[in-house]
Amino acid sequence: MKSLVVEDDFISRLVLQKMLLPYGPCDAAVNGKEAVQAFSFAIAEKHPYDLICMDIMMPEMNGIDALKIIQGKIAELGIKPENEPKIIMVTALDTPKEVIEAYYKGGCTYYLTKPINKSKIIKLLSEMELV
Predict the structure, then answer these.
(1) CB distance 54 to 87 below 8 Å
(2) pLDDT per residue as tens digits for the range 70-105
């Protein structure tokens, strides 16, 4: 499983990477702009991500905007649903507005609120059949 952690907070990014590294390579980005670039690069290199864990509130480009761009690129490239990366929005926000925007307008697979613990991540990975 190849994953991408998109998180502006260094400690949160590091913790999530350490949780995912036992399952395969794990890249990191510090904002939505870098996430879009990493996604595009991985596709161009023919080594796409299986999983993207992305924060919502980040500088330069937030997670919802990055999610919409990534979903647009998936559609544009004609990537089949079974080959799309699973996208988990990981955030401190849990108001209905953010959840609705992430799921229905952005197209994320799951939504988790912080703090994230290892058992939650492992359970989700198992549900998504990534491990």
Answers:
(1) yes
(2) 999 999 999 998 899 999 988 886 666 666 665 555
Rounded Cα gap, residues 51 and 54, in angstroms: 10
> Rounded distance, CA 44 to CA 17, Å?
23
Q: Where are the domains of the chain?
A: 3-126
Half-sphere exposure of 55 (CA within 13 A, CB side): 27
Provide the whole-model pTM.
0.90
Alpha helices per DSSP H over 1-131: 10-20, 32-44, 63-77, 96-100, 118-127
Cβ 81 vs Cβ 43: under 8 Å: no
> Cβ(31)–Cβ(9) under 8 Å?
no
Tokens of 86: 């699973």
H or E element that contains 57: none
- CATH topology for 3-126? Rossmann fold (3.40.50)
